[in-house]
Amino acid sequence: MDLNTMLGMPGEALRTTRTEWRQSLTNAVQAAFAFHYERNDLYRAQCDAVRVCPHDIIGYNDLHRIPLLPAVVFKQGAGQQILTAKAADIEIEVRSAGSSGVPSVSRRDAMTFTRASVGTLGCFRDFFELSNGTGLFLYSSKSDDAGFRMPKVFDLLTCTLDDYSYATHNRPFDIGEALTQLRSWEGAKARHIIGTPLAITRLIKVLELESIRMNLGSRSLIIMFGGRHQYTRYLGTRDEFDAEAQRILGVGRCGIRDVYSMTESTMVAIECEYQRKHVPHWCYASIRDSSNPAVELDPARTGMIAILDALNTAYPGFLLSDDIGEVDESDCPCGRTGQTLTVRRPYRAAERGHSNAGTAAIANGWA
């Protein structure tokens, strides 16, 4: 299955045989590697330094050999220097506070923006089965909050709903606006709530303080986009969140979905009804040794998350993040094939030290 078919038919691409998935993914990533190797002198120099070229990427087991770009360079103002595309061809800049709280800026050309929009919308449709219903989008109006730029993501979802509304969750949280809107949709096929984990947690806590209980219905979803790692001390565990959401909003565990993404990548890992985050069919997730990111770890081992993205034409989309996690290639009960990702943050100081040292080693190579 070629890349354009994968983007246009996400349902089929996500449920192909494991053999076909591996071959299709390998072809797409190898082609992306060749694209940047031939057009980006800085990236080619890095590849030549470790003696890797596109001809060396023959099969699925060779993907880990592709040199990585550390995500930290996007936080150091170096994003302009690593472009494969011409600066004049850049259409948008995507910004995020990221996991460290340091602003990250990545750029998209027309091809990347179009591919990412089509691929992401297709995945949203496949995982969330959105074609009607209503949606309450919670976001922050403060520019330094994780959810400030969420409306850009929300726009991809609004076209799949019958009706939708936006509400801010800044302190103090005016519950009246959100509550009135949710109640006005009573009787709708589904009433979805979409926002950062912090925003949805604030909504739940205010409802609890006001002794208000709602039953949004069995077809309703709570969809979370990023930001959880910045507020772990306030949010508690995921199990606690799920229990509160079911008790206050009437949404069961299978209807609570988290989406993991990186500003620097087109990758969106979306949870299925079994709460397993599926890596999209155009990306390869690789777990790396935190002390030596050139070493790929076996599945189920914990390490730094690297994402090899076949869609990005603006710059090499082969990124090493500061996030810690594991990858799993076992079958999922939902029927989708490919990889699933468990994301854990570098909680311990010693772990952070290894992670930063490994990232710095690659960053120094790029410098």
TrEMBL record:
Q: Where is the Acyl-protein synthetase LuxE domain positioned along the sequence?
A: 27-355
Gene3D superfamilies, per this entry? N-terminal domain of ligase-like
Q: Where does the source fall among the domains of life? A: Bacteria
Q: What GO terms are given for molecular function?
A: long-chain fatty acid--protein ligase activity
The protein's matches in Pfam families, at most eight in alphabetical order, are given as: LuxE
Q: Which GO terms describe its biological process?
A: bioluminescence
Its recorded name reads: Acyl-protein synthetase
